[in-house]
Amino acid sequence: MARIDLNHIRHAYGPNPKSDKDYALKEVHHSWEDGGAYALLGPSGCGKTTLLNIISGLIHPSHGQLLFNGEDVTNLSTQERNIAQVFQFPVIYDTMTVYDNLAFPLRNRGVPEAEIDRKVRETLEMIDLASWAKKKARGLTADQKQKISLGRGLVRSDVNAILFDEPLTVIDPHMKWVLRSQLKQLHQRFGYTMVYVTHDQTEALTFAQKVVVMYDGEIVQIGTPEELFERPKHTFVGYFIGSPGMNVMPVKLAGGMAQIGSHQIQLPSPAMPVAAGKIELGIRPEYVRLGRLGIPVKIAKVEDIGRHKIVRTRLENQEIAVIVGEGQDIPAEPHVAFDPKGINIYADSWRVEGQ
Amino acid sequence: MEKTWNNKAWFMVLPVLLLVAFSAVIPLMTVVNYSVQDTFGNNQFFWAGTEWFEEILHSERFHAALGRNLVFSFIILAIEVPLGIVIALNMPRKGWGVPVCLVLMALPLLIPWNVVGTIWQVFGRVDIGLLGYTLAKLGINYNYVQNPMHAWFTVIIMDIWHWTSLVVLLCYAGLVSIPDAFYQAAKIDGASRWAVFRYIQLPKMNRVLLIAVLLRFMDSFMIYTEPFVVTGGGPGNSTTFLSIDLVKVAVGQFDLGPAAAMSIIYFLIILLLSWVFYTIMTNYDAER
Fold first, then answer.
1. CB-based contacts of A352: which residues, under 8 Å, 6+ apart?
2. d(CA A36, CA A194)
3. CA distance to partner chain B, nearest, from residue A37 (Å)
4. pLDDT tens, residue by residue, A59-69
5. Which of A79, A156, A285, B100 is a plausible cystine mate for A321, CB 3.0–4.6 Å?
6. Chain B residues lying within 8 Å of A89, measured CB to CB
7. CA gap A158, A139 in Å, rounded
8. Please, how many CA atoms are within 13 Å of residue A107, restricted to the half-sphere of its CB?
9. Helix/strand/coil for B181
10. Other CB atoms within 10 A of residue B208 CB
11. Contact by Cβ (8 Å): A43, A49
């Protein structure tokens, strides 16, 4: 297993990138710990797969260096980097048995047969397919095939990292839970460095210790699920994570107060650093209280989703979503109040630090 | 719900039945009709029973033609299938080369059979043909009109030129349908070029290869026009395949009875061999 250093990496698919727009991946400069479980989360086209392919060596970055345990691997081939990857669609060798599928990467590396047998049996136990060893791989279900893909990585004890490219896309919902928890167990038991690409926030938040949120070719925030929820660094993180996402509204700041239209809101700390640019206030629906005190709003829609209700309210031209408990009734003259600990201030979409 | 049981649905298949009757059953039955009768002209027919069939099955001329067909089909399959796979593997997967290669590959397939025959007939001529003339200048005594080996060589090369493209295009279609992830996974697993071919490309081409072999076998077994135009079945009878022989009997000698019996035997052989091929290959497929 290895620590992964992404050293000022940038990538453009076109030949002569000039402006920032030409880059599918803008400057990425981070260090990922040995044995960490990272999820790359973001919408389609945000560059997360590009970043994964740079790590696996399928793409050579236009600029920058990639280090595994401090060693420069930028110019090494996929094979030499010694990583494992599980793809979106199960990749298995149809004509081989489950056993031979797992033995394949070892045989290609000229490992002695006795050693192969030991490793393969061990891995079959780990991925829970021991009783399927002699079966042809083609007849298996999608989740079993994905386990074989994973197993072909696990069977090599010296892999630097295991990469997952949206591996649960084709798996039935109930099997997703099972596979995800098995993955987590494997990670906890054996301490693999894992990088997991997904556009599904639940998947990312349950799998990873650190979630790397990407947007428009950039890493906008790396943090624990809690950090992403409480203190989104970018308004995008605010509304991409959470259901519904964070309410973001333009405000004017003046003397420890935020002004929305004609209403004033008390900020948590009066010593707010003055920031230039477009100022916005972000607050998650979980921190908005609906009651008889605060700012008067109109109710546009109530969505009852079972465990709670989502109330879509309107404050002048601004929509504010509020999460209300199942049992709580909605007042006839509704007002909203913002819990100060849930308020974040953004300047040009980036969170103003030191609030 | 109560189910209604009656046979009215059979009326639904009536149009298809009529179509099949007029397109296949009735023409085939006329041939069957001729095959069991003898005629001396004047539209007078006499019952002959299985006489023609027995005669054909015991005729050395038929055996020789059948043997030539089998050898021919075997040779062209043994060359065209591997060659087609090799060409398909080496064709570009993206960029401007793709349409260029596809058009080049499709060209021979678009040329009518008799034109292909004519092209090669002229191409191989020692006096004016590019191939024949060049070979003659190189001191090789090439003459497909007189030398049976040269005639076979010409007919086989012509068939390879005409039909390898079909195998190439089918294999290529099989190859491009393999998702990139397979190649990437193979790289990660450290697979050699041969292992990629053996465990990814070949299994994925399996089905199209089956179709390619079947089509090429049936077509080559029924070959008529090209050798007829190039060699006319000669020199001697050396390139007289079953189809050419059949036309000689039916049109040349106007022996309707033997010709009809021969057609039926010919048809049954193709049917049988295609079935055997198909069964062997699908069983092999299922086993793996």
1. A272, A273, A275, A345, A346
2. 6
3. 20
4. 888 888 888 88
5. A285
6. 179, 181
7. 30
8. 13
9. helix
10. 19
11. no
- Please tell me which residue of chain B has the smallest CA distance to A150: B185
Whichever domain contains B230, its CATH number is 1.10.3720.10
Q: What token pair was written down for B183?
A: 């190649």
Q: Examine the pLDDT at A285 and tell me if it is beyond 60.
A: yes
* Amino acid, res. A57: G
Within 10 angstroms of residue B58's Cβ, the number of other Cβ atoms is: 9
Please give the domain boundaries of chain A with CATH numbers for all domains: 4-236 (3.40.50.300), 246-351 (2.40.50.140)
pLDDT class for B168, splitting at 50, 70, 90? very high
B260 within a domain of the structure (yes/no): no
Nearest C-alpha neighbor of B262 from the set B100, B42, B32: B32
The B-side interface with A (CB below 8 A) comprises 179, 181-182, 184-185, 187-192, 195, 199-200, 203-204, 288
Residue B159 falls within a domain, yes or no? yes
CB contact under 8 A, A87 and B181: yes
Contact A91 B185 (CB under 8 A): yes
B182 interaction partners in chain A (CB closer than 8 Å): 91
Q: Report residue B82 CA to chain centroid gap.
A: 16
B87 within domain boundaries: yes
Q: What pLDDT is stored for residue A355 in this prediction?
A: 57
Domain that holds residue B180: 61-254+267-287
A140 within 8 A of A127, measured Cβ to Cβ: no
pLDDT in tens, A173-186: 888 888 888 888 88
Number of domains chain B is built from: 1
Interface test with A, best of B188, B197, B201, B285 (most A CBs within 10 A): B188
Q: Residue B256: which H helix or E strand, with range? A: helix B256-287
Q: ipTM > 0.90?
A: no
Angle between helices B113-123 and B130-137 (to 10 degrees): 20
When pLDDT is cut at 50, 70 and 90, the band that residue B76 belongs to is: very high
For chains A and B, what is the number of CB pairs under 8 angstroms?
54
Tokens of A29: 């400069």
One-character DSSP codes across A180-211:
HHHHHHHHHHH---EEEEES-HHHHHHH-SEE
DSSP character string of B121-140: HHHT-TTT-HHHHHHHHTT-
A148 to chain B: closest CA residue: B185
pTM > 0.95: yes or no: no
> What is the helix (H) or strand (E) element at residue A289, kind and residue range?
strand A288-291
Residue B51: inside a domain: no
Q: Do B185 and A95 touch (CB under 8 A)?
A: no
Chain B nearest CA to A89, separation (Å): 8
